Structure formats: structure tokens, C-alpha cells
């Protein structure tokens, strides 16, 4: 996994629980990596999973809740780094449809060794989209958080259900998303 994800996980923990908590997590976690995580470098996935495992044990939160919260946080950080990919005028649905064919293509240009998830889409209607998520990492709770973070960024209301999940034996996670309009319209 790319170091940028580790750096953002560190920021997430520090921003929400303090620097001392992150240092405690590092001290309590056996990692293959020595030294600080550097953005463009690649690190074993197991190191992130170990850090998250230690965090949920120490903080008393569930794995799904931790990954979801990190996903919401992560979207905001990534959007700030690459604002050209998250044009609010284009809308959330248009953005989601570009993840695999535009954003991950650009990631792999910058980092040829990056292992990005695969997304397939069924564009059901102007207000409905089905996304199939496939990844050996099986980080579907993180993806749910990214969806919610993106919805907040685009100031749009969404509802979604996960009708298939790799954690329950499916070959891929399937998200059926309904776009409910601007949060401003609801107010």
C-alpha cells in the first residue's frame, strides 16, 4: 500500500485522538516497516491492517466503524491534494464514474506499482448507480466512508445499500446508490 495512505491514517488518528495515541499505536504494533512512512513509497498492506487492528483494540471501536470513519476523513484529504478530480460542479455521480477510468489510471501513471481496487459500473438512471468494488484488500467499509466523504464534499444526499459483500462470500461488493439531490435543497 502506498505511503500516502499510511500518512493520512496517521493524521486521522492524531486529529481525532492526539499525537500520543498515534505514538502509542506505533509502539504497540509489530510492523515490518522501520522508520517513518513516506508518501510515494510502498509498504506491506499488513502494516496498515496491524495499525488499524491495534487502534480498534485500544480505542474500543469496531473495524467497520474505524474504516468507515477513516474513509470519510481520507476523502477530504485526497480531494484537497487533487482538486482537479473533484469538481463540485460535475456532481457526485459523475465523480464516482471517474474513479476507475480516470483517477486510478492517473494514480498508476504516478505509481506504477500501486494496486488500486477495480470498479465496474451500471448506470441505472440519472439518480441511480450500481458500483461493483473488487479488491484483494476487501476494504469495503473504507469505500463506504469514501462515498460518504464524497457526498459531503459535493454537498449531495445519497442513500446506498450493499447488496453483495466479499466478507460474506460474494466475488465483489455491490453498492446500489440513490442520489437524492443537493443538501441545500433539503434545507
Automatic annotation (TrEMBL):
The lineage of its organism: Bacteria, Pseudomonadati, Planctomycetota, Planctomycetia, Planctomycetia incertae sedis. InterPro entries: H-NOX_domain_sf, Heme_NO-bd, NO_sig/Golgi_transp_ligand-bd, V4R. Gene3D superfamilies: H-NOX domain (3.90.1520.10). This is Heme NO binding protein. One of its GO terms (molecular function) is heme binding. Residues 119-179 form the 4-vinyl reductase 4VR domain. SUPFAM superfamilies: Ligand-binding domain in the NO signalling and Golgi transport (SSF111126).
Amino acid at each position: 500500500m502506498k505511503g500516502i495512505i499510511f500518512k493520512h491514517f496517521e493524521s486521522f488518528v492524531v486529529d481525532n485522538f492526539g499525537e500520543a495515541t498515534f505514538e502509542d499505536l506505533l509502539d504497540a504494533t509489530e510492523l515490518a516497516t522501520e522508520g517513518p512512512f513516506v508518501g510515494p513509497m510502498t509498504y506491506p498492506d499488513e502494516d496498515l491492517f496491524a495499525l488499524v487492528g491495534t487502534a480498534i483494540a485500544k480505542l474500543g471501536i469496531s473495524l467497520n466503524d474505524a474504516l468507515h470513519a477513516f474513509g470519510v476523513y481520507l476523502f477530504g484529504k485526497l480531494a484537497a491534494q487533487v482538486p482537479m478530480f473533484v469538481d463540485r460542479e460535475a456532481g457526485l455521480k459523475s465523480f464516482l464514474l471517474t474513479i476507475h477510468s480516470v483517477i486510478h489510471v492517473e494514480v498508476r501513471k504516478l505509481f506504477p506499482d500501486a494496486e488500486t481496487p477495480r470498479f465496474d459500473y451500471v448506470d441505472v438512471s440519472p439518480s441511480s448507480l450500481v458500483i461493483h468494488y473488487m479488491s484483494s484488500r476487501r476494504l469495503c467499509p473504507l469505500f463506504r466512508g469514501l462515498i460518504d466523504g464524497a457526498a459531503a464534499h459535493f454537498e449531495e444526499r445519497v442513500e446506498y445499500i450493499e447488496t453483495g459483500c466479499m466478507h460474506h462470500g460474494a466475488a465483489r461488493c455491490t453498492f446500489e446508490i440513490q442520489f437524492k439531490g443537493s443538501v441545500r435543497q433539503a434545507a
